[in-house]
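Case study 2.
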Amino acid sequence: MIDGINGLHHIAISTGRWDEMLKFYRDTLGFAEVDGFEWRAGDETSEVADAVTGLRGSGARVAMLKGRNACIELFEYYSPEPKPVDPNRPVNDHGLTHICLDVTDVEAVYNALVARGMRFHTHVQAMGDGIRGTYGRDPDGNVVEIQELLKPDDPARIF
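Prediction:
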């Protein structure tokens, strides 16, 4: 294991049914909504979002939902237009958008993973108020995010 990786922080789910998904995770399962934001294609946030996600002209709204030991991040992309998924897809089909690892020193972890052959969309970026990170790919192409929460009192902090 690479020094500085603390464990799983969140999973992310992209949905076209925002209201139903938010109600399910927040109201039905009891995850607390601790953060939310959005960006539109062409605004100042979209440049960083496009670099990190590997998309072009992206726009989305996001909610961070905190459970006892991990968070769920919901995305609803406005652009580019997402492909619909089969709501009854078998468990072996693709569905979750990425796995996020909470790290202590994102630059050191990034460099260690690059040295071990991991492919990233971009170098580490400032991804919002008090967050630095980036997205990379596992050997199957699944997205793995590394993020460092810089604020000790961040409401999404679980470690």
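The longest strand covers residues 5-14.
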